[in-house]
Automatic annotation (TrEMBL):
InterPro entries: SAM-dependent_MTases_sf (IPR029063). This is Methyltransferase domain-containing protein. One of its GO terms (molecular function) is methyltransferase activity. Belongs to the methyltransferase superfamily. LaeA methyltransferase family. It comes from Colletotrichum orchidophilum. GO terms for biological process: methylation. Keywords: Methyltransferase, Transferase.
């Protein structure tokens, strides 16, 4: 197997729905009102339980603790390393992101062959497992697999399938797994890993021969194919501030173009890249992208202040009030259906 030398074509432009001026703003429901929807083969689910699974080994109480900062809670283990909260609001958002990926991938848990329901898999590692929803659903689909989810925060539910377990650890520390994995799944880890080459090298060393690594992530800045993002965009300003802050904190949000080269350098073969788009609201004309826009709006709009808060206050010395204002201004553009913005995935 070898890397495909042909450049990956960009996804096609999304047609925008014609919008009357009096219907230009999309007003989504609050995160707490988002309910599961049965679309296609898989029911989009949400797990709202908060503590680590009781089946895992006993851990020090300090690892399970959180710390309060600007009205949100963050992990206390390796305090300050990760910039996203770990409270109930953030758990709800992570489950929305899970639903976004399901809709993007036609209700499969991934694009690598092990993610197909008819595949037989041995050991699986879910990096940055968050609420553990991906690991739980994978374990349910693949009862023959042993699924391990790892995260800095103990945000996983109480009850999990018998073949699923969670570990609280730092993925950037030396890996001590006793056996190799057949499938390593990583999602939304950009901005969290300081040395991507070292991380990818560890993935390579901990995969069985013929094993798969799947990286799913989102580009940082919104784009538009028809130049409808304002020149003095408050949305772009908010993301630029966050981008600069993460660089200052030592966790830069790397571009997609970096990863193909790094994967090849550490030894991966048959590297495949697929591109998708997540609109900022329901502006697209076609149903799938309209649905993606609805879910992505619920991912971002109610949670933008939480995503901005730690980076902007820790690295840029902005006040809590200034972050709220920055998020409020950006939120107006997120809701404007005349702005045909999207994020590359």
């Amino acid at each position: 197997m070898c890397n495909d030398s042909n450049p990956t074509p960009p996804p096609a432009a999304i047609a925008a729905e014609e919008i009357q001026d009096d219907n230009a703003s999309f007003s989504g429901v609050s995160t707490s009102e988002v309910t599961p929807r049965n679309i296609g083969r898989r029911k989009l689910t949400r797990w709202l339980q908060g503590s680590i699974a009781s089946s895992t080994s006993t851990v020090a109480a300090s690892i399970l603790e959180s710390r309060l900062e600007n009205g949100r809670t963050y992990h206390k283990y390796k305090e300050g390393k990760y910039w996203v909260p770990n409270d109930e609001r953030e758990k709800d958002r992570l489950d929305i992101v899970h639903n976004l990926y399901l809709l993007t991938f036609d209700y499969y848990l991934g694009n690598a062959p092990p993610a197909r329901e008819d595949s037989k898999v041995g050991r699986v590692l879910d990096v940055g497992t968050g609420t553990g929803l991906w690991a739980i659903e994978f374990g349910e689909d693949h009862p023959e697999a042993e699924v391990v989810g790892i995260d800095l925060s103990a945000s996983q539910p109480n009850f999990v399938p018998p073949n699923v377990r969670f570990e609280i650890d730092d993925i950037e520390e030396p890996w001590t797994f006793s056996n190799l994995f057949d499938y390593i799944h990583s999602r939304m880890m950009k901005g969290s890993i300081r040395d991507w080459k070292k991380f990818l090298q560890r993935c390579f060393e901990n995969l069985s021969p013929g094993g798969y690594l799947e990286l799913n992530d989102v580009d940082f800045f919104p784009l538009s194919d028809d130049d409808t993002i304002p020149k003095e965009s408050k949305l772009i300003r908010a993301f630029q501030l966050c981008f600069d802050a993460l660089e200052k904190l030592g966790s830069p949000f790397e571009e997609f173009s970096l990863f193909e080269g790094l994967l090849s350098e550490v030894g991966f073969q048959d590297i495949q890249v697929q591109r998708f788009k997540w609109p900022t609201n329901t502006w697209p004309k076609d149903k799938k992208h309209k649905d993606l826009g609805e879910w992505n709006h619920e991912n971002l709009s109610p949670n933008l202040d939480g995503l901005l808060m730690a980076p902007l206050t820790r690295a840029l010395d902005m006040t809590q009030a200034e972050v709220y204002i920055t998020a409020m201004e950006a939120r107006k553009e997120l809701a404007d259906r005349n702005i045909h913005a999207y994020f590359n995935v």
